[in-house]
Amino acid sequence: MAEEKQPTVILQDPEDHQEHHTEDGEAMKQRVKEMEEEAAKLRELQAVYEKEINSSSEEDKEAIDARSIYVGNVDYSATPEELQAHFQSCGTINRVTILCDKWTGHPKGYAYVEFADPSLIANAMTLNETLLHGRPIKVTAKRTNIPGFNRGGRSRGRAGWRGAGAQFYGHYPPTIRGRARGRRGFAPY
Q1: pLDDT at residue 173 in the model
Q2: Which one, 13, 55, 95, 102, has the greatest CB density within 10 A?
Q3: Per-residue pLDDT tens for 21-79?
Q4: Same domain membership, residue 94 and residue 38
């Protein structure tokens, strides 16, 4: 029969084991300290970046919008480089932005092209209905976005805003058939 091997037992000095844990603890503390310092640097960089972004005033945004165009019906496989090549004949291009869905990352099918000079927009408008990837693109001047609170009255659903309540004439209020609408109280059926 085969000889059975006995498991070998290695005895360690408890003091050596303690020193090993102490070294691991010190190394871990050092790594944590380095990570905290790096996180602080990242926070500082982010604060500087946010200040730069927020410092662009409304006038700057309107100036950028004045020299930008909207490009609609852009093929989903189109790249910013292809759009830049398509509009290069119009003049100097500062930036090409293809908007993407923030959840999926897929393109939305439209883009913005920012030119160096507002007078170049007229040249770009001549490329309206030209083909890019076999699709006719729609080119219009970019409009300045109006914030939501300044837009005025908004629709209040299917029926619109009715005020305090529906008006009725005669002795009895109108009968509502089907599901009741509005705040008429709890009706289980």
Answers
A1: 59
A2: 95
A3: 677 888 999 999 999 999 999 999 998 888 776 666 666 888 888 999 999 999 999 99
A4: no
Q: Is there a single domain that holds both residue 36 and residue 81?
A: no
Pairwise CA distance, residues 155 & 89, whole Å: 43
Tally of structural domains, the chain: 2
Which residue, 117, 121, 131, 123, is CA-closest to 83? 131
Residue that has been written with the tokens 């945004």 in this structure: 61
- Classify residue 168: in a domain, yes or no: no
Q: What percent of the chain has pLDDT over 90?
A: 50
Question: Is position 173 within any domain?
Answer: no
Q: Which residues of 130-140 are buried (b: 16+ CB within 10 A; e: fewer)?
A: eebeeeebebe
Residue 156 above 60 pLDDT? no
Mean pLDDT across 76-102: 94
Give me the domain span that covers residue 75. Answer: 67-141
